Amino acid sequence: MAPLLEVKGLQAFYGQTKVLFDLGFDIAEGGITTLLGANGAGKTTTLRAICNMVRTEGSVRFAGKDIRGLPTEEIVRQRIAHVPEGRGTFTTLTVDENLRIAAYTRRDKEGVKNELDRVFGYFPRLKERVQQQAGTLSGGEQQMLAIARALMLKPRLMLLDEPSFGLAPLVVVEIFRILRRINEEEKVSILLVEQNAALALDLADYAYVLETGRVVMADRSSVVKNDEGIRKSYLGY
Amino acid sequence: MEQFLQQLASGLANGAIYACVALALVMIYVSTDHLNFAQGEMAMFSTYISWQLMNWGLNFWLAFVLAVLISFVAGLLIERIVLRPLHNAPVLSVVVVFIGLLAICNSMAGAIWSYLIKEYPSPFPKSTFGIAGVIGPHQLGVVLVTLIVLSLLFVFFRYTPLGLAMRAAAQNPSSARLVGVRVDWMLALGWGLAAAVGAVAGIMVAHIVYLDPNMMGGILLYAFASALVGGIGNPGGAVIGGFIVGILENMVAYAGNMIEKETGVYIIGNGEKLTVALIIVIFVLTVKPAGLFGRVVVKRV
What we know:
The complex is a heterodimer of chains A (237) and B (301). Chain A is α/β, with parallel strands linked by helices and 237 residues long. Chain A contains ten helices and ten strands. Chain A has helices at 43-50, 72-77, 95-100, 109-122, 124-128, 139-152, 169-186, 197-203, 221-225, 228-235; strands at 5-14, 17-27, 32-36, 55-62, 65-66, 80-83, 157-161, 189-193, 206-211, 214-220. By secondary structure, chain B is an all-alpha fold. Helix content of chain B is 73%, strand content 0%. The A-B interface holds A 51, 53, 71-73, 76-77, 81-82, 84, 86, 88-93, 97, 100-105, 133, 135-139, 142, 149, 152-153, 166 and B 161-162, 164-165, 167-168, 171-172, 174-183, 297-301.
């Protein structure tokens, strides 16, 4: 079966500085894939490159279509949802508005309402705070809101940038449990970028390890997890 | 007492105009962090367009609607054509473009319609009513029309998906893109709406200040003051700020007149309205730098 996302020879630049070198990887439909690596390895940049938020060269194919170079908002409309680093909360809007904004192109009110209910099924805590200004939510709740907003886009592929960042361990466990459910119940493929390699390898079925913008290892999570050398050199645990 | 009420009414009418222009300024400010110095001249140009349409035989309201629509499209095009290439330009470049726009609007209006001051009709009936001429029909009409326009805008931004998308694009453009909002178009739409609201203000005020290419100069100054008093990032605040400034300047004149009548000494009057109003504005900003309604956004990270 052809992969859902196919990245080949991807290069990315910040100004004149090249940060991704000839990067290539695939994401299978329905799976959870993780990108691991130290700070500065290019994990976040890879996600940003997929959504054309940095200058890129190379090829990014999604569901058989070349999407590289399309404006970010058009890539998103192909049903790739990006949960950005720092969560990207609309702080002055309410929780409800933060979610509805993701459905603003849709005209079927009934459908949007069903979508909201479905999303609240995963995040009951957000439902309690639906009229609250999003900037007043806790870090964990804002992360949930970001994932919920991405879900409102009915994505085929969800890109998650460090969903565990700055959160209490218990909250992280809760969020990862929800991600697993979303993957299984919604059939959403996930590309996860994480600092916390142990956690990411538990969730993902396939892993790529990056170092300074290049893939240094690609294998099933269980294999990567047990590779002593990789673990010591790149994952640091 | 009657004079007091008259001044209050006149303050409300002026305030309504300031509120519209201030709102136009804020709409562009919240999405781009730039103050459009050409907002007043754009409104003036729109007013001339409506005058021209009436000259060609259209009735007032048809000319009004058409001029507002034309302004909307023109605002949108100005953003797409003139400002789009400057999205990543330094602030000063943008400021220069705004000043250029100001000069272009002004001299084009002068070239097409001459700098001669023109009378501009009022669409409202001449009759006096209510408490014997406390509020003139034009003043009442201005307040009503602007309130309707402001309410429509409020409903649009608060309750429609497109309004929500525009607010989201203004607040966090990169996140807005990530939920599929076409941010560039939202900016252009914001410019269009600002130009349209400015046109409403220009057309409403032209009967009072008469039509000439420099008619909006003072009004833009008041509108800046209104936006700042209300909190430059807060559309509702800008509207209230407009009414505050409008009423304030007339109250200053009223107080001056009363003092003169009682004591025979002239201290302040109509001539000092602007000065005193601006002094009060500066005072407000010294005490509350964010403006009266400029709330500090609660943010947890």
